[in-house]
Amino acid sequence: MKRRRWRSARAILLAAGAAATLLAFPGPALADGVHEATFLYGRDGRQMLDAFWRSSARPLPGVVVVHGGYWVAGDKGSWDYNARWLRDNGFQVFSINYRLAGQARWPAQRDDALHAITWLKRNAGRFNLDPARITIMGASAGGHIAAAVGTHGTGGRTVRGVVALSPPVAPILGYQEGLQIGALDTRAKLTDTTLLLAGCAPMSQVPGCADTWRDMSADTEASRGDAPMLLMHSAGDFVDSAGSFVLGDALRKQGVPVTVEVLPGSKHAAALISGAAERERVLGWLKAAVGEPPRRAPAPGGRPLPQIPGLLDDDGYTAARPTA
Known about the structure:
By secondary structure, the protein is an alpha/beta fold. The chain has helices at 2-15, 80-88, 108-122, 141-151, 155-158, 171-177, 185-198, 209-216, 242-253, 276-289, and strands at 24-26, 34-40, 48-54, 60-66, 92-96, 129-139, 162-165, 229-234, 258-263, 311-312, 318-319.
């Protein structure tokens, strides 16, 4: 009976999410001035975010974090460690869930990220957040969503910058690579999930299908005034960097600053920032994007952060996480 009542109460809370100014599920007790809680930013049960923020005498810049998982899986909780790291380095951080491709087709995922950002700007005072200095950071499928936010409309009015790790910014390329003979399972899965995301095959005659595939590619939306971007891959990443170079060219033609970096090795998604140098690189870029003074870089030759084997990244493949 109690379980039934709890489910009914939760359903009512979820339905009321969009109408409520702030509907929160508080986290554990933390040190003074440090806060964590889960909030609804919309009516759907996937439209939730985990907030990691500090009390502050002045509004601080923010980072919206978007998890990966081939657009069909994953959860905001996979970014808890990095969210706390960003909070400890001067940002108010918000890790979001969004509707997955099995539930809603594109552009629902981008719409949810935009909705979350709008919600945060409206409630900025609650989080000591500067609404004019919000950036977005995503990994893998989340990197694609982040880049799509940065090029939607005049993206620079929505966010001050985009960091995308292993982003399949041109899903059509992922779809095609997965069809090649001998394609890795990870790439073959991109074919299946991009098809689910679009709801139709690229050459389908279904009305609106071609427009959907075009809209899913961030480079087709590039325009003057879009958000500056840092796009990162590894040389052996199963998400090919070709799409990011195409996006980079499209943004540069519009006068938008963009950097595409390909790191040695085969790390994917959040594992790309498991090393000290890479973390400092991303942190410095984010601070520059929001006009914060840079941190002093670690001494050359500094010891890399230890790797913890056996953890899973956003896409379910073994990754590594830095220790504190």
